[in-house]
Specification:
The protein is mostly helical and 453 residues long. Helices cover 76% and strands 0% of the residues. It contains 16 helices and no strands. It has helices spanning 22-52, 59-84, 87-105, 110-138, 144-156, 158-172, 176-193, 213-231, 239-254, 269-287, 289-297, 302-326, 332-356, 360-387, 394-422, 426-447. The protein is globular, with a radius of gyration of 21 Å. The N and C termini lie far apart (46 Å). Mean pLDDT is 84; it is low at 1-6 and 8-13.
Length: 453
C-alpha cells in the first residue's frame, strides 16, 4: 500500500515561487489581481456610470452593497472550508463572482447594475476567505509573510494600468466592457490553480466542523442592515432613526461572526480583527470619493482621475514588499502602529485640501502615505490572524478578518453616502466625507497598540 503524499504545508519552505508552491502562488495571485483590477476599475468608471444611468442616489450603494453581501459569502466560505477544505468554496465563489460581472456588464439601469454588484460581492467575499485558507493549508508558516506580501502586491499592481485602462475602455468601448472583460480572464486564472491544489488538505482530521446556519443568518442580517443604512437617506422623516437602528443591528449581528471581545478591542486577535476593520473603513471610505472629487471639483477626466490612485497603490506594493523582506526585524505591532498613522495623515490631507480649496496635487500626493500605511499593516495583520489560529479555526478567523474588511468598509461607505447627500454644496459634501473617515482612522490608531497579545 502506497503512502499518501504529504500536505503542501508540511513540505520544506522552498519559497513561494519554487516547486511545489509555484502554481499555487501564480494562480492565487492571478485571482487576487483580477479582483483588484475590477475593484479599481469600478471606482474609476462609477462617476460615468452614475451619470449615464441617472443613479447618483445609488452611488454609495454600488460600493457598499457588494461589501455587505460579501459578509455572507465570507461566513459561508469560512464554515465550508473548516468542514471540507477550501477547494469547493473557491470554485463556487469564482462562479458566483463571474455571474455578478455578467449581470453588471449587461445592466440597463442603475438598479440592475447594483444587483449585479451584490451578486459579485457575494462571490468575491467567499473567494477571499477560500484563498486565505488555501494559504494556511498549502504553505508552511515560514512563507506566510511572503505570500501575503505577494497578495498585497497583486492587489495594488493593477493600479499601474487599471484606472487608466478602465477610463480608456469606458470612453472608447463603453463602461460595460470594464465588467465583461474581466470575465474572460478569471476562468484561465482558476484553471491554472486547479491542478496545483490537489495536495491541499481537505478538512480537519478529527470530528468534522458542523454547519453554522446561525452565523449565516447573522451575516445575512448584517448585510441587510448595511443595505438599510444606504437606503435610509431616502426616508423623509424617520431617516435618521432608521440609520441609527441599522448601525446598531449591524454591530449586533457581527458579534457572533468575529472573535469574542472584538468590539471591545481586547488585546490579541480581537484587536487584530478590529484594527483591520477600522483601517479598511477609513481607507476605502475615503478612496472611493477621491476620483469623484477630482471629476466634480477639479474637472479631471475619468481616466486621469483614476490615475490618482496609482501613487497610493505603488506605495502599498512597495511597503508590502519591504515588510516582507524585513520579516521579524520589524515587529508586527510596530508595523501596524506606523501604518495606521500614515493612513490617518493621508485622510487629513484630503480633508484640508477639500476644505480650503488647496491644489489637487496635495490630496493626490498625500494618498501615497495611505498606500504605504496599508502596505505595512495588511500583510502583518493577516500573518497575525493565522498565527493565532488553530487548524479548525482557520476558516472562522480568516472569514472574521475579511468580514472586518468588508463590513467596516460597507458601514463607512453607507455613512459617507448619507453625509455626502446631507450637504447642499459640493465642497461641504466632500469635506464631510473626509472628516468622517478621518475620525474612523483615529479609532484605528487608538486600537493598533492593542494587537500585541
Amino acid at each position: 500500500m502506497h503512502e499518501s503524499a504529504p500536505p503542501l504545508s508540511a513540505l520544506p519552505a522552498a519559497g513561494i515561487l519554487r516547486r511545489p508552491h509555484l502554481l499555487v502562488t501564480v494562480g492565487s495571485c492571478a485571482l487576487v489581481f483580477l479582483a483588484a483590477f475590477e475593484s479599481l476599475a469600478v471606482t474609476t468608471i462609477m462617476p460615468v456610470v452614475s451619470r449615464e444611468l441617472d443613479g447618483a442616489n445609488l452611488y454609495a450603494l454600488a460600493f457598499a452593497g457588494p461589501l455587505a453581501t460579501g459578509v455572507i459569502g465570507m461566513v459561508g466560505a469560512g464554515n465550508w472550508s473548516d468542514r471540507r477544505g477550501p477547494l469547493a468554496p473557491l470554485y463556487v465563489s469564482v462562479a458566483v463572482f463571474v455571474l455578478g460581472l455578467l449581470i453588471a456588464g449587461t445592466a440597463g439601469s442603475m438598479a440592475v447594475l447594483v444587483a449585479g454588484r451584490l451578486v459579485q460581492g457575494l462571490g468575491g467575499g467567499a473567494m477571499t476567505v477560500a484563498l486565505y485558507v488555501v494559504v494556511a493549508r498549502a504553505y508552511p508558516p515560514a512563507l506566510h509573510a511572503k505570500i501575503f506580501a505577494a497578495f498585497s502586491a497583486a492587489w495594488v499592481i493593477p493600479s499601474l494600468v487599471g484606472p487608466f485602462a478602465a477610463g480608456l475602455v469606458a470612453q472608447l468601448a463603453g463602461w460595460q466592457w470594464v465588467f465583461l472583460g474581466v470575465v474572460g480572464l478569471v476562468i484561465p486564472a482558476l484553471a491554472m490553480l486547479v491542478p496545483a491544489l490537489r495536495g491541499v488538505r481537505s478538512g480537519p482530521e478529527n470530528q468534522p466542523v458542523p454547519w453554522a446556519f446561525g452565523r449565516l443568518a447573522w451575516a445575512a442580517l448584517a448585510a441587510l442592515a448595511v443595505l438599510g443604512l444606504n437606503l435610509s437617506a431616502a426616508i423623509p422623516v424617520a431617516g435618521a432613526f432608521v440609520a441609527g437602528a441599522a448601525v446598531a443591528v449591524a454591530l449586533l449581528a457581527v458579534r457572533p461572526l468575529v472573535p469574542r471581545g472584538t468590539l471591545l478591542a481586547r488585546r490579541g486577535l480581537p484587536s487584530v480583527i478590529l484594527t483591520r476593520g477600522l483601517a479598511s473603513a477609513g481607507f476605502f471610505g475615503a478612496e472611493v470619493y477621491l476620483p469623484y472629487l477630482l471629476v466634480e471639483r477639479y474637472d479631471f477626466s475619468p481616466t486621469f482621475a483614476g490615475l490618482t490612485l496609482t501613487g497610493g497603490a505603488l506605495a502599498w506594493a512597495a511597503a508590502s514588499g519591504i515588510q516582507g523582506r524585513l520579516g521579524n526585524r520589524l515587529a508586527s505591532p510596530v508595523a501596524v502602529r506606523i501604518g495606521s498613522l500614515l493612513v490617518l495623515s493621508a485622510i487629513v490631507l484630503a480633508l484640508v485640501t477639500t476644505a480650503f480649496g488647496w491644489p489637487a496635487v496635495v490630496a493626490i500626493s498625500g494618498w501615497i502615505l495611505a498606500g504605504g500605511g496599508m502596505g505595512l499593516m495588511y500583510p502583518r495583520l493577516s500573518v497575525m490572524t493565522l498565527a493565532l489560529s488553530t487548524p479548525d479555526t482557520e476558516g472562522f478567523n480568516s472569514s472574521a478578518m475579511s468580514i472586518a474588511d468588508s463590513l467596516g468598509g460597507a458601514l463607512a461607505l453607507a455613512t459617507t453616502g448619507i453625509v455626502f447627500t446631507a450637504f447642499t454644496t459640493t465642497a461641504a459634501s466632500f469635506a464631510g466625507v473626509f472628516a468622517l473617515t478621518a475620525v474612523i482612522a483615529v479609532a484605528a490608531v487608538a486600537t493598533a497598540p492593542r494587537v500585541a497579545d
